[in-house]
């Protein structure tokens, strides 16, 4: 364990609230905060009418949120309204904030997002992490985290929690990296290597990218399949606005869905897995390119220049994605498929064959496929917003400790 | 609409309860009823200690449940305990009950299940429904339903709702059969053809079979994939004890997951779908058998006799199931796969190749595959129990109308 980062006043993410008077108060605090966040600035009376509680009940709840630094008063409303002038309420731009961090194969990053959803501090370090042991990577990441937290504290914010995106399978304990093949990490307790004193969650990058899409995307439906790629191909299944995690936390392994039952061997133990056709290395090989630092950039640049071999390789990868997604769509019946991460950058050359394959295998209208606008930023933003959401969902936990 | 079956006092299944004093009372009624159902007979004091409410609060709730006929007193507890003797409480074997019905390809059935989960009335009619229009089938089914309801009423029960299992895709309205290929039904409002006056749900047979497995199976986990077959191959995904239905209600179409991307054409529009390798007709064809009335029985009998061609056909079907399930397991990370319906009867000849294929494609331990003990009864039981669960989940809805 490293030294505490901060005298933490942590939020309790995702705790079940008991069904008592006290539990009801906690849930109503969350409803007031969510309403002010989603529709503010609002007066107390407007909040009361939105959520169907009395003005008096809402006032008590608002006072508590103001005392905890979660809500602030913007000053009196414009005059001319009937009744005593109220003061407009808004979610605070100071107080608790979410810290997000990311271990990428070729970069490290950290950021702080306030309760309004704005990024207030950010730090990035480029350079490969392939084959580096977890300890120096975590140390470097801790440096970036301390840097963004220090900046945020100057702005009157304090970290309510830390979430870290990793390109690998994460155990349901939310701290152990079971397998991250492109980092060559196995059974690594990453939680133990990161700053102590803050509530911490380590999660798969595709999961956090999908949450970012859900929360920050344009008209993202509440049931969708998010497909992303850095080196491997990951996916995340969102059902009714919630991540489907799976028993071990390993759901969404689209990269290992068989596409050709007797195709080439895959390191996972299978044969003909999607990654053997649409993974970055397979595509580079098919395109006749050498893997370098910015593989996706290289593929996109060559495809844009009209390189036929690269275009053919991406076309075939799109077809393989279409076969695997046909199976996924049949199983899950999502409202949409969203391509994120590296796949978003390659979408112009993947999408036509991917969509054709889905359509060819579907009697009715095929599931729509769209491209994320968040691109490679998704997982980092998803991480920070996951902490912010936990505060908004149970503000009493912060209030008690604040 | 046909004439009302009964002066109904319907339960409101799955309604969201408001977060108010009244909502809290409704949820606590459900908690008391669930506790008595799961652990009864219990005294009021035991219920209070189980759910963490005061004895006085529990007494008020219990009185309400007794007045509505949902709970009954079994008489005084055995003496010798400390304090005033309490009366043991149990869920009532009279009062509201669930009516389940099933449209099978080769049969129709109906049953009534009481709040204790016991089947109190049952009626079956054998004979094919292939190519019959929905109207006469619904009329015949209505006859069976009236028969079991009349029997149940003699026993002091009254129907709280009706759920109907159908082998096809059901719209999320819970009444329209969008497509049932083996009945040759399309866009059929089955709800309009069934007895009026009762809350009604039409659902896919694989979904209801999975719920039966969840509620009645031996140690069924809360995250599993249920695979069943009558003529086609259906599946249902259960996540944290809840069915994953999909946007249109079509989730679980395992039969149309591609197994060989350039395999034979499938009526669904695809190519090389699982049903082309493991569907009943494909297996009969591969085994060199003519489709008759009891296809599964024929396959099982021949395989048991040692018919090599039939065994080979089932072996190959198991392999194809293994390929499709590898994809499903990678996407969903379930705790187990359960084979139900017709697949349960053929399990001895399907399982070895199915398990081998899953293991061959998995680096770590493969997902365990088990066989349902409910067999072909699953969907019918699941239907009746779905109604019973709705009553147990919101007893206030019944109490208000009872």
Shape of chain A: globular
- Percentage of β-strand residues of chain A: 15-25%
User: What is the correct CATH architecture of the domain at 218-373 in chain A?
Assistant: 2-Layer Sandwich
Order of helices and strands of chain A: HHHEEEEEHEEEEEHEEEHHHHEHEHH
Largest interface: A-B, 50 and 50 residues
Low-confidence stretches of chain A: 1-18
Number of DSSP-assigned strands of chain A? 15
Q: What summary fits the major beta sheet of chain A?
A: 5 strands, mixed
Number of helices of chain A: 12
Determine Rg of chain A (CA atoms, Å).
Answer: 23 Å
Taking strands numbered 1, 2, ... along the chain, how are they ordered across the largest sheet of chain A? 5-4-3-6-10
GO molecular function (chains A, B): DNA-binding transcription factor activity
Protein name (chains A, B): Xylose repressor
InterPro entries (chains A, B): ATPase_NBD, HTH_MarR-typ, ROK, WH-like_DNA-bd_sf, WH_DNA-bd_sf
Family (chains A, B): Belongs to the ROK (NagC/XylR) family.
């Amino acid at each position: 364990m490293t030294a505490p980062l901060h005298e933490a006043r942590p939020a309790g993410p995702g705790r079940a609230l008991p069904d008592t008077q006290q539990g009801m108060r906690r849930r109503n605090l969350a409803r007031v905060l969510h309403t002010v966040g989603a529709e503010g600035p609002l007066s107390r009376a407007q909040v009361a009418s939105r959520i169907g509680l009395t003005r008096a009940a809402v006032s008590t709840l608002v006072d508590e949120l103001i005392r905890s630094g979660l809500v602030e008063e913007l000053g009196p409303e414009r005059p001319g309204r009937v009744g005593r002038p109220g003061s407009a309420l808004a979610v605070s731009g100071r107080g608790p904030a979410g810290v997000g961090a990311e271990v990428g194969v070729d970069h490290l990053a950290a950021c702080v997002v306030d309760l309004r959803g704005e990024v207030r501090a950010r730090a990035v370090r480029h350079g490969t992490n392939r084959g580096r042991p977890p300890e120096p990577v975590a140390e470097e990441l801790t440096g970036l985290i301390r840097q963004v937290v220090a900046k945020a504290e100057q702005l009157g914010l304090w970290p309510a929690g830390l979430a870290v995106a990793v390109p690998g399978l994460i155990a349901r304990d939310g701290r152990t990296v079971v397998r991250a093949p492109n980092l060559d990490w196995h059974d690594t307790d990453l939680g133990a290597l990161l700053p102590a004193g803050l509530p911490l969650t380590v999660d798969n990058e595709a999961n956090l990218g999908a949450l970012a899409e859900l929360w920050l995307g344009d008209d993202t439906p509440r049931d969708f399949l998010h497909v992303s790629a850095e080196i491997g191909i990951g996916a995340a299944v969102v059902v009714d606005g919630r991540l489907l995690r799976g028993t071990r936390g390993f759901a969404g392994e689209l990269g290992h869905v068989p596409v050709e039952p007797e195709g080439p061997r895959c390191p996972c133990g299978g044969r003909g897995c999607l990654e053997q056709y649409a993974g970055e290395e397979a595509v580079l090989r098919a395109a006749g390119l050498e893997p370098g630092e910015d593989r996706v950039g290289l593929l996109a640049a060559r495809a844009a220049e009209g390189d036929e071999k690269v275009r053919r390789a991406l076309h075939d990868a799109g077809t393989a994605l279409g076969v695997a997604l046909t199976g996924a769509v049949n199983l899950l019946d999502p409202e949409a498929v969203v391509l994120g991460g590296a796949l978003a950058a390659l979408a112009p050359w993947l999408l036509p064959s991917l969509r054709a394959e889905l359509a060819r295998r579907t009697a009715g209208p095929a599931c729509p496929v769209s491209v994320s606008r968040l691109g490679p930023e998704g997982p980092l933003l998803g991480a920070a917003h996951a902490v912010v959401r936990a505060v908004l969902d149970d503000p009493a936990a912060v209030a008690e400790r604040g």
